[in-house]
Amino acid sequence: MLDTTTRAPVGRARGTNRLVVLGAILAIALVAGVLVGLKLRSSGDSGAFPQSTSIEQQYGVRFSRIAVVGDGGLITLTYVVLDSEKATRFQSDVGHPPELRSEARDGGTKRVSVMKQGHSLRVGQTYYLVYQNTKGALRHGERAAIHVGSLTLLHAPVL
Q1: How many CA atoms lie within 13 Å of 9's alpha carbon, on the beta-carbon side?
Q2: Which residues make Cβ contacts (< 8 Å) with residue 55, sequence separation at least 6?
Q3: How far apart are CA 147 and CA 52, in angstroms?
Q4: What is the DSSP string of 38-66?
Q5: Is 141:158 a contact under the CB 8 Å cutoff?
Q6: Whole-number Å distance between alpha carbons of 94 and 118
Q7: Any bridge partners for residue 148, and if so which?
Q8: What is the pLDDT along the chain (159 residues), one digit of tens a residue?
Q9: In angstroms, rounded to a whole number, what is the distance separating the alpha carbons of residues 118 and 112?
Q10: Which residue in 22, 32, 34, 47 has a CA-CA distance of 20 to 30 Å to 136?
Q11: How would DSSP label each residue in 67-105?
């Protein structure tokens, strides 16, 4: 009888199996690394923005982000409107803007360059104030305090 089956050379089969096993190990390591990274990111509070019920009730806004932008020369303070009437009063008070102060160093800024005025503010909408970053008052990676009237929100991360 004539044998017509073909067989791969033994060396090539072992090499292919090794590549499959190596690929599987790398895929598992990659997935495990991603999962550990996500867990570390979600468990730490380094990116969590603090909240103040007092500020929210008095001013009708919830601060959500501080970022140094414009090659370090500007700062944006982002907030979400919770009560449009109170938020309109907050935003219209151009003589008393929130003051941003570094928790790590002396210095801060209340020099608002852009403050939107005269528009109706919608609940749930995000707005922002733009400050001059006077003498590098805030830096990426540090924490800041937001002073609004007699109230203060501490430990806000600066992006």
Answers
A1: 3
A2: 61, 62, 63, 146, 148, 151, 153
A3: 11
A4: HHHHHH--TTPPP--HHHHHHHSEEEEEE
A5: yes
A6: 12
A7: 151
A8: 555 655 655 555 566 777 777 666 766 766 656 555 554 444 445 568 999 999 999 999 999 999 999 889 999 999 999 999 999 888 888 888 999 999 998 888 988 876 666 678 899 999 999 999 989 999 999 999 999 999 999 999 999
A9: 16
A10: 47
A11: EEEGGGTEEEEEEEES-HHHHHHHHH-TTSPPEEEESSS
Distance, CA of 97 to chain centre? 22
Measured in whole angstroms, the distance separating CA 88 from the mean position of its chain's CA atoms is 25
Distance CA 119, CA 73 (A): 27
Query: Per the structure block, which two tokens stand in for 1?
Result: 């009888």
Q: List the one residue out of 65, 62, 91 whose CA is nearest residue 76.
A: 65
Phi, psi of 4 (to 5 degrees): -110, 5
Q: Residue-wise over 130-149: b if at least 16 C-beta within 10 A, else e?
A: bbebeeebbeeeebbbbbbe
Whose structure tokens read 């072992």?
14
